[in-house]
Write a structure and sequence with these properties.
Blueprint: E1 2-7, H1 15-25, E2 29-33, H2 44-49, E3 53-57, E4 65-69, E5 75-78, E6 92-97, E7 100-106, H3 116-136, E8 142-147, H4 171-182, E9 186-187, H5 188-192, E10 219-223, H6 225-228, E11 231-236, E12 252-256
Parallel strand pairs: 1-2, 7-8
Antiparallel strand pairs: 1-12, 2-4, 3-4, 5-6, 6-7, 8-10, 9-10, 11-12
Helix pairs in contact: 3-4
This protein binds one DNA strand of 18 nucleotides through loops.
DNA sequence: ATGTCGAGCAAAGCTCGA
């Protein structure tokens, strides 16, 4: 089974890019983030025509997450992250499909920091950790996939000099991510590239970041032990980032032997 | 400190978020 996460940065704006990649990569399950579409605006017909069932949680203007599957309809288990009833942002959807439990998550960016947005990021991280703990020991494979908006270590960025004040690199953000790993989750890309520099997953639009390969690794797939023992391969479809009207992220994927 | 991109609002450029 191949499962990918892809911050599409506008599912309607980049629908052609998404369909092209689905056609050539043929992932079985896809977690999308930053739909930037309401629930009604989600292009369900085009995605069905491409051979995928989908569940999604939209929002006006920002955020929005989805799970696509070509191996059976995803059965939604959650449409929001527990822990804050007042949080109306669409950043989490979770479903059972093809014998695995998968979450598509879009962790808050947190800039500018310090400030209320950074506080929200850290609070969201806490909620995620609490929920993740309840999922870790699930007998079936569990995959928490998405845009975590965290550069885990100095090895996960081309050069951190101009990013020192960014929320993605703050010690608090990194510690929160590490706490998740310490529960027993496996970072699939890091597992696949233990010694070499890992592939980047995001290149900002500014300052010719793509042309300079000035990338960051912020899209992650975390595996519970049942999923980790079935991990066969992992990677990034980086060429997708170089295309016309591309998202600023590239699809990041794993292959599981189920 | 800067930079790019796209959408909403409302009628063109500003604002926001990333």
């Amino acid at each position: 089974m191949r499962l990918a996460t892809f911050n599409i940065n506008g599912v309607n704006t980049r629908l052609a890019n998404l369909l092209e990649w689905l056609d050539e990569a043929e992932p079985d399950i896809v977690c999308l983030q930053e739909l930037k579409a309401t629930t009604e605006q989600f292009p369900v017909k085009a995605i069905r025509d491409a051979g995928y069932d989908a569940v999604w949680q939209g929002e006006h203007r920002w955020n929005g997450v989805a799970i696509l599957s070509r191996i059976g309809e995803p059965v939604v288990t959650r449409r929001r992250l527990p822990g804050d009833e007042a949080d109306g942002q669409s950043r989490y959807v979770e479903a059972a499909v093809g014998g695995v439990l998968v979450a598509s998550l879009y962790l808050p960016n947190g800039n500018p920091q310090p400030g209320p947005k950074f506080d929200y990021k850290l609070a969201w991280f806490d909620r995620l950790a609490r929920h993740a703990k309840t999922l870790l020991k699930t007998e079936a494979p569990v995959i928490l996939a998405g845009d975590y908006n965290v550069v885990p270590t100095e090895a996960d960025i081309y050069n951190s000099r101009s990013w020192k004040k960014d929320a993605l690199l703050q010690p608090e953000s990194r510690a929160a991510y590490q706490r998740l790993l310490d529960q027993g989750w496996t970072d699939a890309i890091r597992e696949r590239f233990p010694n070499d520099p890992p592939p980047w997953t995001f290149w900002q639009y500014f300052r010719q970041a793509w042309e300079r390969d000035a990338g960051l690794r912020i899209d992650h797939l975390l595996l519970n032990p049942a999923a980790a023992e079935r991990l066969r391969d992992a990677g990034v479809d980086r060429e997708v980032r170089g295309r016309e009207k591309a998202s600023d992220h590239a699809p990041t994927w794993i292959e599981l032997d189920l």
